């Protein structure tokens, strides 16, 4: 595993024992040197989600930040994109909203063949109260399963399907569209930390391939409930200027819409990832 020490000047404070860390001493609008990028990559792989306070970034600076970690991802379905910046999603809810992004536990766009490695959300407007986001460590979810169950799940694969979630959600007339559907390992090896993480989520995972439908439904229901164990979580309370940078390969998140009819708005940049794999021989 690469060095997990933060670069000089980067201060990290864990949010909870299993998930998340707040990072101070960094201005995300400035170009990041390689040492800092490396330190952030290591911290992300270790803590799953990094939080930053009081950040000011233009859309171009936000995209430049994302590009230090990989190519930018384009969402297969989400319609609210920032004008002139098709890589930036507007995450917004107000009194007219019929939905908000991420209202259930998920890993972003896991139905993609190569799901995004990470997502950087910069919040601009917050409601008077509420609008927190929950994050849960999928390392902890994997590690707290019993050994026989871990043994059964390692090497199994599951279908992640965008169809049930996206169909009709964002645009009423989407009959001509197709949504991504793919098969991923149920337990994945994180490419940076080498640790194992549970990789099924309520939003997209529909079926464990090696099990009968009835068995798969039962096992997935149990795993989805397990993912929500409070012990694995941290809860982020946003302020204007807050940034959360989460790693979709080892955390899931859930945005709480408890502030209707108030407004909450931010901008999201998403970073492309690679195909999830399970490597039984990896040493964390
Ligand atoms: O609004 C949030 O806090 C997160 C939204 C979300 O789940 C997402 O962008 O994937």
Give the end-to-end Cα distance, rounded to a whole number of Å: 7 Å
- What class, by secondary structure content? alpha+beta
Total number of strands: 16
CATH H-level superfamily: Clavaminate synthase-like
* Number of structurally distinct domains: 1
Percent range for β-strand residues: 25-35%
Largest sheet: 8 strands, mixed
What is the C-alpha radius of gyration, as a whole number of Å?
A: 18 Å
Query: What share of the residues lie within helices?
Result: 10-25%
In CATH, the architecture is 4-Layer Sandwich
Entry keywords:
single chain; Double-stranded beta-helix; alpha+beta; binds 2-oxoglutaric acid; 284 residues; three-stranded antiparallel β-sheet; 19% helix; 6 helices; eight-stranded mixed β-sheet
Question: Your description of this structure?
Answer:
The protein has 284 residues and is of the alpha+beta class. The protein has a single domain, classed as 4-Layer Sandwich (Double-stranded beta-helix). Helices cover 19% and strands 27% of the residues. It has helices at residues 34-47, 59-67, 138-143, 147-153, 163-166, 213-227; strands spanning 11-14, 21-24, 49-52, 81-82, 85-93, 118-125, 133-137, 157-161, 181-185, 187-189, 196-198, 205-208, 233-236, 243-247, 251-255, 264-271. The strands form four sheets. It has an eight-stranded mixed beta sheet, with helices on one face. The chain has a three-stranded antiparallel beta sheet with strand order 13-7-15. The protein is globular, with a radius of gyration of 18 Å. The protein starts with 10 loop residues before the first strand and ends in a 13-residue tail after the last strand. The chain binds 2-oxoglutaric acid. 2-oxoglutaric acid is lined by residues 91, 101-102, 108, 121, 133, 253, 255, 268.
